[in-house]
Amino acid sequence: MEKNLYFLGLQPPFALAATITQLKEDISRRYGCTHALNVPPHLTLVPPFRAGTGMQGLGGKMPAFAASVSPFPVYLRGFGYFENAHNRVIFVAVDATSPLQDIWRGLSGLVCETLTGMPRRKEEDFHPHITLAHRDLTSDAFYEAWPHYQNTVFEATFTAQEITLFVHQDRHWEVASRYPFGEGDP
Q1: DSSP assignment, residue 171?
Q2: Helices H, strands E: what count in the chain?
């Protein structure tokens, strides 16, 4: 049985998403990395995972989970990077506020409890960010690009109002479902 590839995240509103897409397009144009353009701007809460029929169980629990969360502010402040042996990532930095950590914890737990074989992630593994360039960002391009972004000021705030489920389709990520927040605690 074929399992689809999914992830869960928060999407900024349209105007801010358009601004972030422009940043992705600029870094793509300047440094030749296009992979990040295959997914809408988002903040990942649960990284990509494969699921088949188990998604029905998770999909059935997501509305109640999301309804238990109150909308909360998300603060974007400057840029950051990850540098590891496999690839380099340049991203918009996101403040790891208590509401954001709470929803990450609750959602991670729900996914692990609902889908068999999902590993539980450690608290220190959560680094909220919105990716601008990764995978096809070469070492040379990273070292050329980072000084520009390191010294660039970027600040924005949006109110998270729903969780988005993304599915991988034809080499791109698409929105599969949206789960609106209510007024409770995660």
Answers
A1: T
A2: 4, 8
Identify whether 186 is part of a domain.
no
Domain encompassing residue 38 = 4-180
Largest CA distance in the chain: 48
Distance CA 155, CA 77 (A): 5
C-alpha–C-alpha distance, residues 11 and 41, integer Å: 6
Domain count, the chain: 1
DSSP 20: H
The CATH number of whichever domain residue 161 belongs to comes to: 3.90.1140.10
Place of tokens 């380099």: 88
Residue 174: phi, psi to the nearest 5? Answer: -130, 155
- Asked if residue 131 has pLDDT above 90, the reply is yes
Do you know the residue count of the chain? 186
CA gap 186, 184 in Å, rounded = 7
- Distance (Å, whole) CA 76 – CA 21: 14
| 1-15, 96-110, 115-129: range with highest mean pLDDT | 96-110
Enter the pTM of the model. Answer: 0.92
Residue corresponding to tokens 């309804």? 67
Q: Does residue 185 fall inside a structural domain?
A: no
Query: How far is Cα 136 from Cα 28, in angstroms, rounded to an integer?
Result: 10
- The pairing of beta strand 155-160 with beta strand 4-10: unpaired
- Examine the pLDDT at 143 and tell me if it is beyond 60: yes
